Amino acid sequence: MPLRSMxxxxxxxxxxxxxxxxxxxxxxxxxxxLDLHFRLPSDADALEMKLRRLxxxxxxxxxxxxxxSLEYAGNNGVALNRQLVGSYVQAxxxxxxxxxxxxxPDLNVVLRMPGAMESAADRSGDxxxxxxxxxxxxxxxxxxxxxxxxxxxxxxELRERMNQLAKASSGMEGHRAAIQHxxxxxxxxxxxxxxxxxxEKERILQEAAVLVDRSDIQEELxxxxxxxxxFLGLLDQGGEVGxxxxxxxxxxxxxxxxxxxxxxxxxxxxxxxxxxxxxMKAEVEKSREQVQNLE
Length: 295
Fold this sequence. Notes:
- By secondary structure, the protein is an alpha+beta fold.
- It has helices spanning about 45-60, 80-100, 105-110, 120-125, 125-175, 175-195, 200-215, 220-235, 240-260, 270-290, and strands spanning about 10-15, 20-30, 35-40, 60-70, 80, 115-120.
- Among the domains are: about 80-115, no CATH class; about 150-290, Four Helix Bundle (Hemerythrin (Met), subunit A) (Up-down Bundle), CATH 1.20.120.
- The protein is elongated and about 120 Å long.
- The mean pLDDT is about 80.
C-alpha cells in the first residue's frame, strides 16, 4: 500500500427519495490517532455507529470530520407531528376540564416540544442509511486518492532528506582524522600554557589519544547510517508507517546531538564536522515536519 498523507477532502452526492438529496463530505487532517467527528441530521445515531465502524476499518490515523447535509425539494423540509401535538392538546383540555381550569394550550410551547416538528429525514426512516452507506466507499476512495497523491510528494522529499543525511555522515567520516590533530594541538598548547616548559611529544599523543577515544564519533555515525537505511526501508514498504518513521527521526536527532557535543570547540578542518552536524539536525527537523502528516 502506498504512503498516505493524513490531509484530504472528498465529497459525494446522492438521492434519498424524490424529495430529499444529500451531500456526504469527508475532511481529514493530521492527528496522532484516529479522531472521528460527525455532523449528521438528528436521529441518525444508528447511521453514525455504522459510519464510525466503517471508517475505523479503513483509516488508521487523522482527525476526520464527516458531514452529511440534506437538501429538500419543495415543502419537504419539516412537517407537523400531528399525532404528538394532537395528543398533547387533548391531554391539556382533559386536565382543564377535570380540574375546572380555563385556558388553551400555548402553540409556541407545543411546537418546541421534542418531536413536535419532524424533518423529512426523520420521516424517511431507513431510507437515509440505505442511500448513504453505499456511497461511503466512493467517498473514502476519493479521499484516499488525494491522500496518496500528497503522500507521494512527501515520500520524494523524505528520500531527498535522507540522501542529504547520508552525504553529511560520509563527509564526517572523511574528517575524523582531523579530530586527533586538533585535540593534540589544543592539548599541547594547554599543557605548555599551564606548565610553561617543554612537553614530550609522546606524552601529548597519549593524552590526545585518550581524548580522541572519548570523543570518537564512529559509533554515532554507524547508528545514524543504520537509522537512515531502516527509514528508507520503511518508505519502500509503504502503508501506515508514520509513527515508525517519527521514532527513527527522534533517534537520528539524538545521534546528531551527540555528534555535536563530542565535536564542540574544534577549529580548523575539524570545524567542518560541526557544520555537518548542524546540517544533519536541520535535515532531521525538516523530515519530522513532513512525517507528522503521514498516516
